[in-house]
Amino acid sequence: MTFRQGGRLDTSGVSGGGRGGRGGRRGIAVGGGVGGLAVVLIALFLGVDPGQLGLDSGATGGPGQTSESAQQLQAHIDQCDLQQANTDTICRIVATTESLEDVWTAQLPDQAGMRWVQPHTNIFASTVDTGCGAASSAVGPFYCPADENVYLDPTFFDQVLVGQLGGSPSGAAQMYVVAHEFGHHLQTMLGDIRRSQQDPQGASSGAVRVELQADCYAGLWAHYATSSPAPDGGAPLLESLTPGDVDAIIQTAEAIGDDHIQRSGGARVDPQSWTHGSSEMRRQWFVTGYEQGSMQACDTFRARL
Ligand SMILES: [Zn+2]
Q1: Strands (DSSP E) along the chain, which ranges?
Q2: Ligand 1 centroid – CA 234 distance (Å)
Q3: Which residues surround ligand 1, an ion (CB under 5 A)?
Q4: Whole-structure pTM value
Q5: Cα–Cα distances in Å, from 122 out to 9, 143, 176?
Q6: For the chain, which residues make up each domain, given as ranges?
Q7: Please, what's the b/e burial string for 168-184 (b: 16 or more CB within 10 A of its CB; e: otherwise)?
Q8: CA of 213 to the centre of ligand 1 (A)
Q9: pLDDT for position 48
Q10: Residue 265: which pLDDT band, with cuts at 50, 70 and 90?
Q11: For residue 176, which of 65, 196, 249, 282 is within the disulfide window of CB 3.0 to 4.6 Å?
Q12: How far is CA 23 from the centre of its chain?
């Protein structure tokens, strides 16, 4: 997947270190402002396990400990342009969020009669405070429904996705992950995200259906990504998506299937414990969204799993 050269990249929707974000929603004291609410983040491949969040463990350290890397991340984000998005992971994330905005701004009114509201994206290192509590990179990329923010630690891609799970190192694979998280934002807008918590485990559970739908929405984005014009009517940000890109995404979707993760961790494959779906299911639903480009085709809640 190649971003076109030239043209401006709007970096305002992405911040470094988990700061910035959406006005009044940010800055909630962890364990304070969210106390009493059932606030659970939706991680890329791990189940919804509050024990993973590092809540009350002091995992975030003091403000001084994280501010330096936050500043560096912010400076990195601020100097991104479209050319760098083809080679630099952080800039690629920024540009992907803009491509996602272009596609959903066009598709959501057409397909669901709703106006798209762009989520804020936070690029962090190691730990981050969120509306869902303090989280560490160990949970992988995630979406927090409480603050409607996407959170990514870019070291995840090389260290975990490729290094541990055998996902593709290509840019397309990283873009798929961002698009999947944006799928959770759409589910939050539509009210479907709660189905994940109502029925959190098992091969045909609500949680798995929510995850597969996010894969399908990522496929839907890929379907339109090279044809959806920028809001100003300019050329699409992405100028190519090759069969090799699709293969890389499929390899990655399979790498984060629950059965593959269980097998690669030396565990028995146990469908009753699944939270995201098997490799085959994840592949299938990405492909469905990619081939059909239709939100209706992404109705995993009615599908037989
Ligand atoms: Zn997910």
Answers
A1: 2-3, 14-16, 42-43, 120-123, 127-130, 133-136, 142-144, 149-152, 238-240
A2: 31
A3: 211, 214
A4: 0.89
A5: 16, 10, 17
A6: 2-298
A7: bebbbbbbbbbbbbbbb
A8: 9
A9: 40
A10: confident
A11: 249
A12: 21
